[in-house]
Amino acid sequence: MSTPETSRFVRLRVDLVLEVEDAAAVTGAALARVAGDADLPPAERSHAEAAVSEDTAEALAYLVDPFDLVGEVPGVELHQASWSSEQIDYDPDSPEWDADADDEDADDDEGYRLYGSGGEGAVDGAAGGVASLRAVPQ
């Protein structure tokens, strides 16, 4: 009798709802990060600056990096990640915000995705959005 092999890949699901108390501080930090990215081509830099200036969710997403969540975890390697965001109306008493509810919308792809709408980022550093982040590693 043989034992079945266990997959080495794990889907990590995280839901985050962030309250932006100082939009100017978030936007300023995102603009500073864009300015400090020496590898960003001029056309992409211009697009990123406009996106983070116009939308706080985009600015926040530019500052949130899935690598930061797992980069220091020993014995794991992040293979894929993407994320997006949207500004939302939040009611913590609503059943819609049940943190224990199963996420039926998750794709079966390997990787990580933060669900929402708005800007979408990828592991290569493209900006995504964040105001309502649903981190669904896939």
Description:
This protein is α+β, with helices and mostly antiparallel strands and 138 residues long. The radius of gyration is 17 Å and the shape is flat. The model is unreliable at 105-138 (pLDDT under 50). The chain has one domain (14-137). The relative contact order is 0.26. The two termini are 31 Å apart. Helices cover 29% and strands 14% of the residues. The protein has a 5-stranded mixed sheet, with helices on one face. It is built from 4 helices and 5 strands.
The N- and C-terminal alpha carbons lie at a distance of: 31 Å
Counted beta strands: 5
Total domains: 1
Low-confidence stretches: 105-138
What layout of secondary structure does this protein have?
Blueprint: E1 14-17, H1 23-36, H2 42-54, H3 56-63, H4 66-70, E2 82-84, E3 112-115, E4 120-122, E5 132-137
Question: How would you summarize what this structure contains?
Answer:
This protein is 29% helix and 14% strand. It is of the alpha+beta class and 138 residues long. The longest helix has 14 residues, at 23-36.
Structural key phrases:
single chain, 138 residues, alpha+beta, disordered C terminus
